[in-house]
Amino acid sequence: MPTSTLRSQLEKDGFVVLRSILNPEQVQQLRDAAERTLSLATSGSWPHVRTVGKQFPPWTWSPGVGIWGVQHLLNPALPDSKIFAASYFSDEILGVAKELLGPCCCGDDELVMELYNLLVRPSDGADFELRWHRDDIPASASAEEELERLDEPAWHAQWNLALCDGDESLIVVPGSHARARTERERSADPFEPDMPNQLIVRLNAGDVVFYNNNILHRGRYDGSRERLSLHGSVGHVAGGRLRARNVLQHGLGSWVDSCDFSSLDEKQRSRAEGMRARLVKLGRESGDVGYSLTG
Asked: What is the DSSP string of the chain?
């Protein structure tokens, strides 16, 4: 898809889907790493998880609690972090991200390392749903407050990269990233199963959806259907404190200084070190950022 088409579709709809962005060998390598990582998390050997029953950070794992996500795939303490780093800093992902960030983003030196996590089917086998939300605008916001925030540049690219066929967890309302909620949306049940104009994003292994994180969206996790989806984001240096809370609320500061990108090729390593350094700088300048949403 031509660059201008990608960007115009994101601006119009708030999301864009690319098919088969990875080849089968790349998908299999990442799927194997994801399965090993999930095994660590469900056994309690990797405590950085998203727990069933809680939508937003912070999360605290305890034995017997189901999980729907695994955090911090770039943390060097994770055995497969090198495989995930090669994916996160790849041309396949960041090439698209730079196009979507627009003509103002002309090189790697404007990118900021952000989040890379794994979304999975609930480990307790039960269905789990996330309520309708925008990632950085509370449901209590007035229409005026919503528009004020939505009128600001996004300064990020966020994506879900499916490693399994039949991924239908993400549900969006196309175009809602560019307007305040309607009265129907504002008064709807938080878990409304049939929001007007909603669209289920359907992905197969190797497909990716990039989306504005302030599009009105929710997640639906089917406990009977396998899911392994890499959930990442990358920022632009111009985002500053606007992006800081979105990212730093997830606790990257405890390990980002110890990242080791020596396994990457020269191009990726230079890109990764620069992006990490800009994240560290953002953290030092931002201080305590709190949490975007609660619950």
From this structure: --HHHHHHHHHHHSEEEES--S-HHHHHHHHHHHHHHHHHHHTTS---EEETT--SS-----TT--EEEE--TT-TTSTTHHHHHHHHTSHHHHHHHHHHH-TT--SGGGEEEEEEEEEES-TTS--EEPPSBBTTB-TT--HHHHHHHHTS---EEEEEEESSTTB--EEE-TTGGGSPPPHHHHHS-TT-TT-TT-EE--B-TT-EEEE-TTSSEEEEE-TTS--EEEEEEEEEGGGTHHHHHHHHTT-GGGTGGG---TTS-HHHHHHHHHHHHHHHHHHHHH-----S---
The CATH fold assigned to 3-286 is Jelly Rolls (2.60.120)
Report whether pLDDT(292) > 60. no
**pTM given for the model:** 0.91
CB 214 within 8 A of CB 177: yes
pLDDT of residue 3: 52
Q: How confident is the model at residue 288 (pLDDT cuts 50, 70, 90)?
A: low
